[in-house]
Amino acid sequence: MTRALRGIGVSPGVSCAPAFIVRMDFPEVPDRTVRPDQVDAEVARLREAVGYVIEHLGELGQRVLQRAGPEESRIFDAQIEMAKDPDFLASVETLIRNNYLSAETAYEFKALEYRNLFSGAAMLREKIADLNAIQLRMLNRLMGGVGHELWSIPHDEQVIVVAHELSPGLTVQLDREHVVGLISEEGTRTAHAAILAHSLGIPAVMGAAGALAAIPPGMMVLLDGQAGTIVLDPTRDELEEAKTQISRRHRLELQLESVVDSPAVTPGGRPIVLMGNVDLPEEIETAVRMGAQGVGLLRTEFLLTGRTALPTENEQAEYFRRVATAFHGYPVVIRSYDLGGDKFPVGFKAPLEANPFLGWRSIRVCLDEPAVFRPQVRAVLRAAADRDIQLMLPLVTLVEEVELTRAIVEEEAQALRREGIRAAESLPVGVMIETPAAALIADRLAEVSAFFSIGTNDLTQYTLAVDRGNARLADRFTPHHPSIVRQLHQVLQVGREAGIPVSVCGEMASEPLSAVLLLGLGYDRLSVSPPALPLVKWVVRTVPEPAAARAAESALAAASAEEVTESIRSVVGEYVDIRLLDPHSALPGRRRVATLPPGNTAS
Ligand code: PEP
Ligand code: MG
What pTM value is reported for the model? Predict the structure, then answer.
């Protein structure tokens, strides 16, 4: 019998609770035809179901709006738009009228056609997830099914939800009090559902292949959302070990609380700038509370989640001002839209591509689509009128991309001046080093860039040719590979020679052991996931610089990622309990750090 499963830890925290299985299987739709005189009644049935589904989605959206906020509830607006799609519904009605198909048969046929049109393009995964959610609701309505909503989760129990795939719509419905963990067979760290689980503070493991077959309903499961491990029916010893880990973490957290108000300086007195990465508006407060010295990476794609139209210039300027006000006195680095991969807004005319992560994305989209990019540049300029705001470009591979952007910034600054709109005269434009191309021409990029920030997530993906979200390759995906360590070293040297600041904003900076490596390499500016800020600061204040430098020196001479990791561990182990910092032990979650049900702890 399977005793353990492995996936990708996407939202930290340790939980243990009985499994609650969510099956999203579609009901079997028989090929049913109707008599010509029943056609009008079928069309009426279809329209009634559409009305019902739209109303239901509206109610869900309202509920989520109250519980989680506008960003999360937008998913339902997008689904309502899709459910109402007049072209789609007209084609279903035509099938009913011309081919005498029943409403559900016709609906399923057309949904299949649409899905085939979308499939193959990773960037449309979200659309497919929306289509699935609507189709399931429609078929349940038309065929009298019970639905798949999570209302049936018993409200006096805590459960871990297990599903094949967690759609963002399903994730935002989850009640944090009762759902203490999430497991899905599909999904990656960059999936919207993963990001939502993280922001809701629910420990989650995705990409856990075979979870549905291995976990029967009600089975006790022990989940570690950082390590990506799932233990089925844990033994007393395993529960005991989890409990020890949780109390170890708890003690550390108490220590960390006192660190929040202390300065980020090494034992030798070298100040380190620790900024926060902000993906969702809800994170602003956490980042401020955790002592972030500004925002080193403000992701802007989430302004688009589930929306059918791009946010306006005013809306963006307002958001950027809000962030900069919250971090008054510190810089805010706004990253231009990193669209592409699975990050296209609903309704955006994204092309079908064989390799979307090597395709039309990020700065490439922005430079090709002035209607997308220019309002964003204007919004940044407007917010920067009296605030410390900088613009950062993702996925740069060409010097020309920076030059073209700088020209756009200049043109828009002039245009705003002509229009009499208050805005900054110019902007510092910096570059994310997240492709080997950018790292190799860093000296030339430095001539046109105000700063560099290293995106180690994509740099690792593109250097190692390992998809950052592929569960099967998770063991190979590591920024400790010597090729990444060398690039980190070289880019910092280039930045120093050119006199521009170089920081790291990839997830690597949020992992305490990796942060030690970065400090040892000479980095003094890190942008970190807000919940990880106290732990990284604690490491900064604890590990002496000469020790970190020793680890970095060995890492630069290493032949494998294992050697790099080992060199950091052996140095750091001299100063702190390494078990607290191991990437495979849980980092503090946002709200829920660890949960063990009282009846299931081995005490
Ligand atoms: C990165 O690639 O390291 C990064 C910070 O950007 P994102 O994770 O948003 O691609
Ligand atoms: Mg990136």
Answer: 0.74
